[in-house]
Amino acid sequence: MNAPTKSIQNFINQTWLGRYETDIPEHTLTLLWSIIVSIFTLGGLIGASFGGNLAIKLGRKGALLINNTFSLLAALLMGLSYPTGLYELLIVGRFLTGINAGISMCVQPLYLGEIAPRAFRGAVAMGTSIFITSGILVGQVIGLKELLGRDDLWPVLLSTTSIPAVMQLLILPWFPESPRYLLIERDDSDACTNALRRLHGQEDYRAEQEDMERERISSQGQEPMSPWQLFRDPTLRWQLTTSVLLNAAQQLNGINAIYFYASYVFGQSGIPASKIPYVTLGTGACECLTALTCGMLIESLGRRVLIIGGYSLMTFWCVCLTLTLTLQDISPAVPYLSMACVFAFILSFGLGPGGVTNILNGELFTQTSRAAAYMIGGSINWMSLFIIGILFPFIVDGLKQYCFLVFLVICCLVATYIFFMVPETKNKTFLEIQAEFQSKYAGKNSRGGGVTLCSVSR
User: Which of 268, 269, 313, 441 could be bridged to 348 by S-S, CB 3.0 to 4.6 A?
Assistant: First the structure.
């Protein structure tokens, strides 16, 4: 929404003038624009809160296909807002776009995590982060004045959200449903076997099937959990605590502050205001590059190394950025150091927290609790985004560049928590991960017993 800001505000003013024969008051325009921007977050929170239920009732693939309805309807309403002279359609469209994003961020990593082979689960699940960052970069590019950022093309720009929805409607029906969902939740072993054969080949699917069979036996007689049941289950308390903490930290770790300060830092470095949008493309390219790098490294280095390293580096760059912003005037070279810190912080975020968080959300839970965990984690993520959107202007206004000291503390605490509390999950089955948590915290849980890893003959 950054690129068409002025154009949309001019459209609102013209519409108001046509209706009431007077210019729109500045505070009313600010309020309407704030609603248009922030209602996306509310939609995301609502979408995340019932995305898991859709995945349980319709299947992972079915939920993703139905979810495209929200995207297509949103694109239609936002595209029609200008020709109809109804800025209200922008509000509804942005809300529906948020619902679509909330469901997608809940169901899509759930689906990818369940269809991926154990040895490549992290790399496949990184697809979520890779395509989010690619989407940000594409949005920045097509929002340039030379493309769709012109005053007369902003409805087309907002309607481009329909393109991935149409692509998914054409392609996804050819993909199999999640084998774990079919076997454990639907008890359909034939459909599960067919799906595994399509995913892994006629001869290479049996090891994955054995893992699923062990998980099915361990969860026999258990229905998929609701979020409330997950909150009340003491055997999953530490997994849930970890998921909540990581999802909250993903929005509260300072990445939003970095993007806010980017234009200021670039301006201080002597870059003309007209050129700053082009330099800002570098921030999107950085995050996209590190998501790809993380995808290539995650199966060799593991989850812990990347996410602890990412948060540790972000802590370091918070210190550096605070110093360079405070000492801007002592040398002409300092603003360039600030610019380097901005890019370094974004690279550190993309290398660990930006991608690994979604992977851990899925790996810490077994089939009966995974959908509920994604609903809780997604809701926390969207609520944190809403909170930072509300409080951030006041934090920046009150602390100025020292706001990064707040984010420094958050990054440092999260890195410490993961180091001491979260085991490595690389190349382990979901049951092995759960058993490791339960053995690690057996004395802290009020309900014991653990998980029996049943062997299954071929």
Answer: 313
Rounded to whole angstroms, how far apart are CA atoms 382 and 248?
Answer: 9
Q: What's 192's DSSP letter?
A: H
8 A C-beta contact, residue 59 and residue 177:
yes
* Burial call 303-332: b when 16+ CB within 10 Å, e when fewer: bbbbbbebbbbbbbbbebbbebbeebeeee
Q: How far apart are CA 182 and CA 102, in angstroms?
A: 24
User: Dmax of the chain from CA atoms?
Assistant: 79
Two tokens, residue 87: 């800025």
What letters, b where the CB count within 10 A reaches 16 and e where it falls short, cover 254-267? bbebbbebbbbbbe
pTM for this prediction = 0.84
Q: Region 365-381: what's the mean pLDDT?
A: 90
Distances in whole angstroms, Cα of residue 443 to Cα of each of 193, 242, 416, 422, 446: 39, 18, 21, 16, 8
Tokens of 85: 């002279």
Tokens standing for 47?
């979408």
**Axis crossing angle, helix 430-440 with helix 206-218, rounded to the nearest 10:** 40
Contact, 259 vs 283, CB < 8 A?
yes
Q: Which of 281, 131, 218 is nearest to 456 (CA)?
A: 218
pLDDT of residue 96: 96
Terminal Cα-to-Cα distance of the chain (whole angstroms): 54
Task: Quote the tokens at residue 43.
Answer: 């939609």
Written as six digits, the tokens of 316 are 């370091």
Tokens 């202007």 identify what position?
Answer: 393
> In sequence order, which residues have a C-beta less than 8 Å from that of residue 199 and are 6 or more positions away?
115, 176, 179, 205
pLDDT for the residue numbered 449:
42
Q: Read off the pLDDT of residues 399-433 as tens digits, 9 standing for 90 and up.
A: 877 888 989 999 999 999 999 999 999 888 888 88
Measured distance CA(143)–CA(337) in Å, rounded: 28
Residue type at 25 in one-letter notation = P
393 Cβ contact list (under 8 Å, min separation 6)? none
- 3-state DSSP assignment of residue 397: helix
Is 41 in contact with 98 (CB distance < 8 Å)? yes
* Cβ-based neighbour number of residue 106 at 10 Å: 32
